Amino acid sequence: MNESHRSSTSDAKLRRWRCFALFCSLTTGLCVVLLALTAFLAAQNLNTHYNLYYVLWKAGIRRYEPAVALGGLLHDLTYRQRFIGMSTKQFMRVFPGTFYQVRKRPPILKPSQELYITNYAQAESGDIGAGWEVTFEDGRVIEFDFGKG
Hints:
The chain is an alpha+beta fold. Helices cover 49% and strands 16% of the residues. The chain has helices at 2-42, 52-58, 66-73, 77-80, 88-94, 120-125, and strands spanning 100-101, 113-117, 130-137, 140-148. It has a four-stranded antiparallel sheet. The longest helix is centred in the N-terminal third of the chain and has 41 residues, at 2-42. The radius of gyration is 27 Å and the shape is rod-shaped. The mean pLDDT is 85.
């Protein structure tokens, strides 16, 4: 009887030890995740005016939403410069269904340049107002900016 009591006591101690070890592992994992998230957010530029959804989109964690991405890009010139030199195909993959080629070419464009804007109606009419504009030359982005019409 004494031996079975010892066995059940050691089984109970072993179970408690396993529960404690599992708890410590989960707590450590949660701390690592929170620390990584904090480090990621702390590495962001302090002079920005965009939200967490934009930061997650930039990191490739969140899907593209025009209002979030373009709203954040308005204040994030450094990240916007990253698109200079990108091909038309690559650019359109980053901003799917957002930019439309201007049909009536403005006279300031060179023959090798194309202008895309975010307003479909303006792109069709050629009457360009305020909105995002991207200029391609020989199939590469040379300018990406917000135009005020």
